[in-house]
Amino acid sequence: MKGITPVIAVILLLLITVSMAGFAFIFLQRSLESATAATGESMNQQLVATNQKVAIVSAAGTTLNLRASGTQAIPMGSVAVLVNNTLTTSGSCPAVQQAAGSLFVCTSTVALCNKNADPLTRSDVSVSAPGGTDATSC
């Protein structure tokens, strides 16, 4: 009986070690799966936002004509109009989601272009969307 006790102890220690390794493997596997899923979802959202681009077509008075120039639709309220680096859009611009390639109009609370030929009094108009910015001087 003296020789059997150390063998049983070794077997029990091996079983405990194997079970702890199994628990650690399962824990790490599930952690990595959730991290991978979250990273993939975040990357997809960033790719969509990168492709939500806008371009200035024309600017006159308080009206700005824009084109959704990216490959993704532009969501409602995601476009900002700035005149001389000051946010000037009234309401949500665009008022509804804009499909890729569509033309739409934003209005401003101040005059966008003063039609003055003097370079010192010209306005810098820029439009910002999730995918980038477009600017013009007028």
In short:
With about 140 residues, the protein is α+β, with helices and mostly antiparallel strands.
Question: Helix amount, in percent?
Answer: 25-40%
Total helical segments: 1
Q: State the order of secondary-structure elements, H for helix, E for strand.
A: HEEEEEEE
Structural category is alpha+beta
Structural Rg: 30 Å
Number of strands: 7
The CATH class name of the largest domain reads Mainly Beta
Percent of residues in beta strands: 25-35%
CATH architecture of the largest domain: Sandwich
Poorly predicted runs are none
Strand order of the largest sheet: 4-3-6-7
Main sheet specs = 4 strands, antiparallel
Overall geometric form: rod-shaped
Overall domain count: 2
**Named CATH topology of the largest domain:** Immunoglobulin-like
CATH homologous superfamily designation of the largest domain: Immunoglobulins
Distance between the termini: 99 Å
